[in-house]
Amino acid sequence: MLFDVDSKNFSWGPGEDNDGEDFVILSSDHDLRDHYDFLVFTDSKGMTLLQEDVRNTWTYMFAQDRIKTGYSVLLITRPKIITVFFTLVNFVRNNGVKFTYLVTNLGFVDHTPKKREFLDDIVQQLPEQFPQSELSLKELGTYTLSSGENQLLCSFNYSNISELIGDEIRRAFKFCVLIGIIEFNNTIKISRSRPDCFYDQLNAANEFIFNISKNSASLIFFQYLRAPLYDPEKVSYDAVHFTSFGHKQLFENIKTLLGNYSI
């Protein structure tokens, strides 16, 4: 069973807080523990499912499965409007709760094309002792909005910051699963069109996640669903969030991965 946790129990650090329905904190225990076996920390892809029960999301299924096998779990989805790896680092630094294992899908929002104001939020979240000089602006081109306005879209190059993130989470967790991004292309049939640079940035996100993981055997870069193996529309309804099929496949693949490591 999973229990709701009051967000006031935690310090979330800088950046705009999310008060939407996709900000969820669930615990395997009614009272907050000072140590959990698993932290599941995700952006909106963790518990978003179009017009379906959130119990069919990979995060919920994973948490329930871990509880059944005797593990304790804290599940957190999208605490910030812009939930990125900096959000996770600040959460781990600012709160006294300890964890053994981490499962996270972060890295996507870090790289998606954004207006400058959203990049400012990422800069605000930059953890102490992470050099801002390592963040360099990357202009991705203009995109014509439905209003007809042309909007400049940007992202960041993170340089050596990926190594700093890797060091932080390696120290905080015994074993980490860093979930890779499905690299869709612009042929996917979705109702909301996305700029071509959006699809280019999916590859940049995966390179970033891989770079975080590459210097430690305890950080596993896990690209669980490669788009050619499935019809893209079967996995995602908008090139971002998963269908129930996508959620189920992710849950089953993570469960198998952890079984291979006897976790």
Write a short abstract of this structure.
The chain is 31% helix and 20% strand. By secondary structure, the chain is an alpha/beta fold.
Order of helices and strands: EEEHEHEHEEHEHEHH
Full CATH superfamily name: SGNH hydrolase
Rg estimate, integer Å: 18 Å
User: What structural class do you assign from the helix and strand content?
Assistant: alpha/beta
Roughly what is the average pLDDT, rounded to an integer?
92
Low-confidence regions: none
**What is the helix fraction of residues, given as a range?**
25-40%
CATH topology: Rossmann fold
Task: Label the overall shape.
Answer: globular
Strand order of the largest sheet: 1-2-4-3-5-8-9
Number of domains: 1
CATH domain class name: Alpha Beta
The biggest sheet amounts to: 7 strands, mixed
